[in-house]
Amino acid sequence: PKLWLIRKQANPNAHIRLFCFPYAGGGASVFQNWLNYCPKQVELWAIQLPGRETRLQETAITSLKSLINRLIPILTPYLDQPYAFFGHSMGSLISFELTRELAKTRQNLPQHLFMSGFRAPQIVNPDLPIHRLGDEQFLTALGHFQGTPETLLKNPDLMAAFLPILRADFKLLETYSYQQGQPLNCPITVFGGHNDAKVSADQLQQWQLQTNQDFVLHTLPGGHFFINQHTEKIMKIICQSLREFPEQMTA
Fold first, then answer.
1. Which of 18, 5, 11, 23 is nearest to 241 (CA)?
2. Which member of 63, 89, 95, 177 is catalytic?
């Protein structure tokens, strides 16, 4: 579990755990500065997937089903108190399917799901798959996706290290097949960027069909990586949403 779950700061007095899932190519460090905006009621855990950062020597997982099967036994011991999931882009899909699997096995569900920068899962991927392209074409396609920071795309050494991870993550996304299921019994809050070229407001709104509880959509200025500019705002919304459960979020 220590490999998968990164907790920079223990918070034994927290009333709720927030598990954060990164975007394609990202690692747990994506959420490092989120701690600066994390109130005492919330304990932040970042998910570290194989193949990146502290797990660079491991093989990245290219199947969402395989990833969920690995994550369930690792996470389950930590779901013994109220918790919530946040995921950005690929992280949204992972946390959504993880929640569905937990519902199937009658585990405690998240108090809240926070989905960010990813179309509702029932919408078929409108883009052609890119994970099998040659390196040069793959890099060009990544640029069009607005899904990889420019600084990374323009650094050949960094890209050489990141390409296998990105390719694996895109394979995971592009081989995903949505299966019809019951709406989840937990509220969903969705975040999107006004100028995200790949995810429209309508595609975000469609997440509403995945819950039989409350649904809220927040759009913020910026492109696909709007979360980097609005961490404080996002954390404030998350905490306000979680305070709807007073037994967990008393001051």
1. 18
2. 89
